[in-house]
Specification:
The structure holds two protein chains of two kinds.
Chain A: H1 10-15, H2 42-58, H3 69-86, H4 89-109, H5 112-121, E1 126-128, E2 138-141, H6 142-149, E3 164-165, E4 168-171, H7 173-191, H8 202-219, H9 238-248, H10 255-267, H11 272-279, H12 287-297, H13 312-317, H14 334-344
Antiparallel strand pairs in A: 1-2, 2-4, 3-4
Helix pairs in contact in A: 2-3, 2-4, 2-8, 3-4, 3-8, 4-7, 5-7, 6-7, 11-12
Chain B: H1 2-9, E1 24-27, E2 33-37, H2 42-52, E3 56-60, E4 62-64, E5 76-79, E6 81-86, E7 100-103, E8 109-111, E9 126-129, H3 134-154, E10 162-166, E11 171-176, H4 179-182, H5 186-197, H6 222-237, H7 240-245, H8 250-262, H9 264-271, H10 285-299, H11 305-309, E12 314-316, E13 330-332, H12 342-345, E14 353-361, E15 364-366, E16 369-371, E17 374-382, H13 383-391, E18 395-397
Antiparallel strand pairs in B: 1-2, 1-3, 3-12, 4-5, 6-11, 7-8, 7-9, 10-11, 10-13, 14-17, 14-18, 15-16
Helix pairs in contact in B: 1-2, 6-9, 6-10
Classes of the chains: A mainly alpha, B alpha+beta.
Chain lengths: 345, 399
Amino acid sequence: MQHSFSKFAKNDYARYPFLKAAAKYMKMPNLKIQDLADPGLKGILRRAEERLNEAILSALVSRNPQHDADIELMSFPVAIILATATEDSFVKKRYALAEANQTYEDLKEEPREKVLEFAQNFVWKLEVNSTRSIPFECSLAFVDYLRNTTHLRDKHWKLVNRILSCGKVYLSIDEAARLLKEEVQRHIEKRLELKELPRFPPNIMDAAERIKKLKIEIIGEQEVEGFPKTIVQEAFPPCIKALYQSFSSGRHLSHIGRFTLTSFLINIGMPPEKAIELFRSFSDYSERMTRYQVEHIAGERGSRTKYTPPRCETLQTHGVCVNQDETCRRVRHPLGYYRRKSRTA
Amino acid sequence: MFREYYVKDFTPNQNIPAIEKREFGFASFEGWMLRHKTFSNTDELASFLRDSVPLHAYVSGAYYEDPEAEMEKKGWLGADLIFEIDADHIPTPCNKIHDEWTCNKCGFSGKGIVPEKCPACDGEKFDDHTWICEVCLASAKLETIKLLDMLTRDFGFHEKEMRTFFSGHRGYHIHVESETVKTLDSIARKEIVDYVSGLGLETALHGLDENDLRNLSVNDSSWRGRIAKGMHGFILNAGPDDYKNIGLERSSATSITKLMTSNKDGILNSLSGSRPWRTIKGIGPETWKRIIEHSAKQQTANVDTVVTTDIHRLIRLTGSLHGKTGLRKVEFPAAAIDSFDPFKSAIAFKAGTTTVFVSNAPEFRLGDETFGPYQNQKVDLPTAAAVLLICKKRAEVAQ
């Protein structure tokens, strides 16, 4: 359904500058990167840098009604450019998260109609619930729901625990706002995925350096992977232990079982050569196939992506998850288990 | 014989949407596998099948920019949402007593479900000879009916978006061909699998409290209503053994059975929403909890989890012959599933007889005729029955 007139005004777009229609209110919607060297844009640039600083400091981006709406609007695309210029994946992720967090805070205060219109910007099928027997304010097409919930951990987001009827998942307006947060975060992360970097003017490079410095001050250098140098078998999660045992006794492993085991071993630092060695004990072992598969998983062939093992939830679906223990309850990924356990083992 | 079918009877006029974007794969009688094939129309496909006569023929549920390229370069555009229900994966009342296995190490053999370890030598690898029986297929059909109901009522798929098939062996397939689900990733599909199989279901999150069943009714939406339906079915038919089997203590099971039986009509009426719930003295939360848990389990649809979540998977081609039976994969309208007879509709070889030497075969039915059991004997059989036994490695063409 298309609304004939929008409930959003310029001030709203100043709060949600990433919405498509916000461009209409921007003074320079086609701003070029080189234009940023212009001293006339100092105010915008200052606010853009502030957006990133706030993101790093508090994972939020302040919304002050005293702020000039024009600067608010324009400083968003500039902040995107700045974040890109840092080439720092943490800064980029953090910025997307901060804008999304702030959006959720703001949406919670909005009347229902505005939330619905906000959702329309992302082509969600979010509607007011008119089925009396179902005690929820609105409903969302299940595909939109899944796209924004599969990574959420709490059980109450799991589709099987929701009311799903005629393709619609029922939820409260606050829950809808919560899921819109996920959508906004993904949307901004996507905008930050720039493959080829343009040349930035010096003032942008300086600002990017300042932001990176702040990040190191506040967050510290990111931990590198966090796995011990030698393999600690005692720290294997129960699922991997079971796979390891059953294959060392010559039993047949399912495709997913074999994939899980191989990718796990590769990821904790076993050299592919040693993994191939290990798989020799399979009775259906073929040197050529095994080498191909292992090197593929290690990212030495084909798409060159290094594969990680499936996360716990996926392993549960496929029946690979067994003998859950106390640590399992605190992690959502077999590598997370290993990282945690290997520190104490 | 497979050649005869692909030359004479295979009709290429079947509906494969966007055939040019799909990958085809074939397994030959000699044991090799051919993948990454493409066809621009069904006539080309039919002519390929006539010339090459594969043992198994598959087509991807996925659509690609370039289906002929190697896996990483294909350019995935989307995939149908596919479910497979296979008797191999579900417990059946026949306990697969018709399946035979032989230990690879010592040659010891037995019947039924393949054991973890050989009882004679502790070996862990087996050769198995499976069979398809009416009980197995009826169980698979029941799961399919439950799944269809969820896909229609809960997921809201239209009849026209869902296609139902008999696989030609031990199961059923459902393909959802709809724009809305095409681009769902593997993790989203996993959530759908978890929904239909009830994995991670927390009854409390559906407002189901064993201390307070007020308002619970079969008319409720989603899992709540499904559980109520399961409870209705269970309570309607349960005897003392059933109450014991759901985990109630032996001592209390008898008295609970009595109480449940004497209050049966009232409970069933409450479940159908025609009478308010009343507390029944002597039936506590622990009992209700067990009944709820059991009922939820009864309502799940046991699908093959890997098939649905694999967005690149090759699926058996409709109309092609299953190499393990010589039966066809056939499509039928979902609404007709109750009366669908796989042993009739999937027959590919409709005429002629063949003389075979049968090593052993249990009694079985094809079409309206019943055959066997056979043990080391020469018999004249309709070609379809002969092919089934040959494919199942129970017979050879008699010289």
